[in-house]
Specification:
Layout lengths: L1 H7 L28 H15 L4 H18 L2 H20 L23 H19 L3 H6 L5 H32 L1 H8 L7
């Protein structure tokens, strides 16, 4: 249960601490930066005490309910994430110089006074806006690091995958229960007795 809870919490540092963020190892259905892990844990414990799950399948189901309830209650986090990404984009577009030639750049043989900027200058010009983005956004910079992971679109995609997996688990559980029932003594006794016709 604790392991599942830890996996539910989405990490903060993309490059160093949580490389799984780079390839989708975390999902938009988990806790996002700024959300209270203790509040989620309390909600999960409350659901456990209400439903008293027994075994890993029931525990997973209650954990899934807790996650969906949490996401429903905290949809505003996606709006915060979107606003942070939009502001970061605006700061970058205001401060980073263009590395593309102007529209009137001649294509063949005609000389122009435009030349591509020095890569060192571009790097320096990129670092200044990034520092400004970090300073202005503060804690919300985490959403910029996460990229598209903290979006409603990603959450819906994650939920679709979870729904498919749950459907497959349900089918296998039904098959397992049928196989177990077919081997039970009451099932074999009732299947060997032929129904009698009324006289």
């Amino acid at each position: 249960m604790i392991r599942a809870y830890r996996e539910f919490v989405v990490g903060v540092r993309v490059k160093k601490l949580y490389p799984a963020l780079k390839h989708g190892g975390y999902s938009a259905t988990g806790l996002l930066p700024g959300e209270d892990p203790a509040a989620f844990e309390k909600q999960h414990r409350d659901l456990i005490s209400e439903h008293c799950p027994v075994g890993p399948l029931q525990e997973d189901t209650v954990f899934g309910i807790a996650g969906l309830m949490w996401r429903k209650q905290n949809l505003g986090t996606f709006r915060i994430a979107e606003a942070a990404r939009e502001r970061a984009s605006a700061i970058r577009s205001e401060m980073i110089p263009s590395t593309t030639p102007p529209l009137d750049f001649p294509l063949f043989g005609v000389s122009s006074d435009w030349s591509p900027p020095d890569p060192a200058d571009v790097k320096a010009a990129t670092e200044a806006p990034e520092a400004q983005v970090r300073k202005e956004l503060g804690e919300n910079y985490k959403f910029v690091e996460m990229g598209d992971l903290a979006t409603v679109t990603q959450m819906l995609a994650d939920l679709e995958v979870e729904e498919r997996l749950n459907t497959m688990i349900d089918k296998l559980l039904k098959r397992l229960w049928m196989l177990q029932a077919s081997k039970s003594p009451s099932f074999t006794a009732s299947s060997t007795t032929l129904p009698r016709k009324a006289a």
